Amino acid sequence: MDVYFKNIFPDNRKSFTGAWIKYFIEEFILAPELPFTNQGLDFRDRILWVIPELLARGHHAAPPKLESSFCRFFQKQGHFLLPLISRVWLNLLDTRHEATFKWAALTLTFFYCEDHDIGEGLKGYIISNPDFDVVALGVRELAYLITKCQFSNVACPTRRSLNNLMNILSFCFRSSTSLLIGFLAGGGVSALSRLLSGPPLQLMLAQPIESADHPVSLTIMICLDLFARCLDHPSSASEALQAGLLKFVVRAAGYYGHKPTNGEHGLDLGDMVALVLASISRLLVYPSVLRRFKRSMTRHVTEEWENMLEESHGFLSEVWESCIDNINCLDDIREDLKEPGSGLCDYKECSNDDKDVKYRCCSSCRRVIYCSYTCAKKNWPRHKAACLEASKIVKGGITVPDPIAIATFYSVIQYYVEIFSRDLDDRLRDFQDKSHSKVLPVVVLEFSHIELDSNAGYQLMNQSCFNIIDQEEAIQDQRLLPANQSQILEYRSGSEDNNPLEVVVAFFPAPWPSGAWPVVEAISVPVGRSAEGSDDDGESEGELEGVPRF
Questions:
Q1: CA 161 to CA 115: how far, in whole Å?
Q2: Assigned domain for 499 exists
Q3: C-alpha–C-alpha distance, residues 499 and 349, integer Å
Q4: 104 domain-assigned
Q5: Its domain of life (predicted)?
Q6: Angular region, 400: left φ>0, alpha ψ -120 to 50, beta rest
Q7: Count of domains in the chain?
Q8: How many Å separate Cα 267 from the centre of its chain?
Q9: Most buried of the four, 214, 286, 544, 547, by CB within 10 Å?
Q10: Closest among 263, 191, 201 to 228, alpha carbons compared
Q11: How many whole angstroms separate alpha carbon 290 and alpha carbon 308?
Q12: In tens digits, what is the pLDDT along the chain, a chain of 550 residues?
């Protein structure tokens, strides 16, 4: 038997393609003339143990070419051979370059098999493997197969197999944030959305979900929690929105409407959905995030979603309203940027007075803005040397801030100033000069006279969505280096004239490192009390009206 298999293997590695492996599986594993007898089972037994050799020689084959063959194999004969298949694929965990095939088989196994050892072995592999990129590759393949699996053509998975699947996802997401990003990139949002709306979830909801320890609610809560924490940069937010983040959020919120659960920090699932939206709301000033969020709204926000918001508690509804307000405000601001005299074109001799200018960044360095190809061409001799240096940084993998996004930040700050009738042209010009020196600004508002609601969800909303932070928390923020804390303290102690609002503009280098965010410079701008909306008790709602809430 072994000689027979050896003879059918091509000697030339290049001829060992995905198409050949697909042919081998269909001809020798799915052959209808092989009955389910002891002899036939032994024959398939030998084939299964030869699969590692197939993978060792043909790992360069594209997984999509094998996906249909594996699915047919499991659908047709999986119930008879899964105990053996489970052991074979579990042994393959020692090989690294076959992550896609391992996860493909293990994923399908979860839908048919109740073997708990597979899940435990997989967890052990993740813990012992320091290279999370390999695991992330497997998670992407897992998401792909969940999405492609046709539940209508196969037997409905058992409750225990679904529990195993959700527990593995929960474990992966808790192990590393990069796994969640990999899951998103591989279509994981669509996969989870399908689980939220398809027959498997209906099976799991046969009994009421009464705690957050249930695999479905646990996985959803972990995803939402990681979304809320990892969406701290425009690139991650753009990728998540492109992968279908808003679709998942809408589905999760709908699930919350029927099955409310309690999560960590006293927040239920609805609060977690709101925090994800709050994280996105902070980043809407970036054009790419704004564009993809508006596109996702068009596709996934339905009348059912709007009705659910009306019936939900105020936290989720208020955050969603703030997102809409921010979008409308930013649309107006970006329209103002098109007005002549805005000074965005980096060609100093630019005389373009067209009101419908569409600014573009330099395609190489993305650090300068031009209103037209003509200005870019005229400014090239002056910009060439700096462009080549900056291009090396971009190619080296370092994120350079989008000048158009920084200009939007400038307009947002200016908008705050105009609302409160303060002239800060000198400092704003200084800020605009710094925008081309690889720095990113963060605007922090402090309402020292307004007492925050004791509700944990409301406080998190203020911190995450509106950037309204408590004075002591601003001083003790770990993202501020100790060397700068005295400077921040001086600014704080200097405003003793009962000004209700203080704007702090902190310049952070780009890209933002994880953990500590060193402050390059921080300026504090006291803003006087608005003429309208003052109350005797110190609370002034009228001061916030019309202000974009970031």
A1: 8
A2: yes
A3: 42
A4: no
A5: Eukaryota
A6: beta
A7: 3
A8: 20
A9: 286
A10: 263
A11: 24
A12: 444 444 444 444 444 445 555 555 555 555 544 444 444 445 555 555 555 455 444 444 444 444 455 545 554 554 444 444 545 554 544 444 444 445 545 554 544 444 555 556 556 666 565 555 555 555 555 555 555 544 434 444 455 555 666 666 666 666 666 666 666 665 566 566 555 555 555 555 444 445 545 556 666 776 777 677 667 666 677 777 877 788 878 877 766 554 444 444 445 677 778 888 887 877 776 667 788 888 888 888 877 788 777 776 567 787 888 788 778 877 766 565 444 444 567 787 887 766 566 667 677 766 677 778 888 888 888 888 877 766 654 444 333 344 444 444 444 444 444 443 333 344 444 544 544 433 333 333 332 222 223 233 223 223 322 233 333 443 344 333 333 333 333 333 333 343 333 334 333 333 333 333 333 233 333 333 222 333 333 333 322 233 233 2
Residues 330 and 347 in one domain: no
Tokens of 204: 């799991």
Whether the CA torsion 123, 125, 131, 136 is positive or negative: it is negative
**Do residue 394 and residue 426 come from a single domain?**
no
270/218 same-domain check: yes
- Is residue 107 in a domain? no
Residue pointed to by tokens 């940084």 = 393
Give the span between the Cα atoms of 372 and 352, in whole angstroms. 9
Whole-angstrom distance, CA of residue 349 vs CA of residue 51: 68
Clarify whether residues 532 and 469 are in a common domain: yes
Cβ count within 10 A of residue 1? 11
b/e sequence 347-372, b meaning 16+ C-beta within 10 Å: beebeeeeeebebbbbeebbbbbbbb
Encoded tokens for 91: 């042994």
Q: Which residues pair with residue 525 across a beta bridge?
A: 503
Please check whether residue 236 lies inside any domain of the structure: yes
351 and 455 belong to one structural domain: no
Q: Alpha helix (H) ranges present in 465-539?
A: 471-476, 482-494
Q: Are 249 and 326 contained in the same domain?
A: yes
Asked if 239 and 305 sit in the same domain, the reply is yes
Provide the residue range defining the domain that includes 376: 339-400
